[in-house]
Amino acid sequence: MFDRLRRLLGLPHSQPTVTDAQWRRVETKLPFLDYLDPVDRPRLRNMALQFLASKQFHGAHGFELDDDMLLDIALQACLPVLNLGLEAYAGWVGVIVYPGDFAIPRREYDEAGVVHEYDADALGEAWDGGPVLLSGVGDGSRADGVNVVIHEFVHKLDMENGGVDGLPRLRPGMSRQTWADTFSAAYEVFCDEVDQGLETRIDPYAAEHPGEFFAVVSEVFFEAPHVLQGRFPQVYEQLVLLYGVNPMLRANSPAGGIA
Fold first, then answer.
1. Residue 109 gets which letter from DSSP?
2. I need a surface site. Which of 58, 124, 203, 243 has the fewest CB within 10 A?
3. Pairing relation of β-strands 94-98 and 124-126?
4. pLDDT at 23 over 60
């Protein structure tokens, strides 16, 4: 399995060989990759192989990870950094995959200073300096515009220059002020809509925190770009600049499959 045992033991490993048939089999389950320019597909595949060679994968509770699952994760993880580089994921090595939802211990203080401890169900979590935790990968159950893998790896991207605050390391030429103004305005509008119980077409979880808003709209950017461009066109344009891809160019073409 892509030298998984050798990686777990810390031994040297070789880059895995993937057949064209296997690439196609995995990518068929990730139809949003069709939004990429065709010339970017080989670059994404190559980066995915580099990613697999640089990280350690573990199945939680005895969960068996097969080659297709590993490719599935790697392709999605590399999509946000295709034009940023794998160095954005430096400083940590672990990816832990659960067969389903998992519980994470939480601790909160109320206004009186009383500590409340509880277990919260989660689909994924990214730890600053630590591993990425994922669930349900490769089961084909993704909803439109919802992608746990992209979400958690965007958090890792966000952490590159500090905590999860919705402000990643921007590409040269991008304006930090424009990014902050654009995302702050959109986040405020979105939170108001969620508070009013309005239909947002974007996961309401994005209202939890500016960092969650960045991760969720990034999911939508890659999976359902027409939704994000229609709802928050200025946010969409900032993500085009950050990620260096424009999914709507293909989404609006016959090959993209969206009218």
1. E
2. 58
3. unpaired
4. yes
Question: Can you tell me the distance from the alpha carbon of 108 to that of 110, in angstroms, rounded to the nearest whole number?
Answer: 7
Q: 202 near 145, Cβ under 8 Å?
A: yes
Whether 214 contacts 183, CB under 8 Å? yes
Q: Is the dihedral of CA 130, 157, 150, 167 positive or negative?
A: positive
User: Higher-confidence residue: 109 or 123?
Assistant: 123
pLDDT-based confidence at 240, cuts 50/70/90? Answer: very high
SS3 assignment, position 121:
strand
Taking CA atoms, 195 is separated from 4, 191, 211, 220, 229, in Å, by: 46, 6, 18, 21, 22
Domains of the chain (ranges, CATH numbers):
4-251 (3.40.390.10)
Residue 205: name the closest of 163, 128, 151, 161 by CA.
151
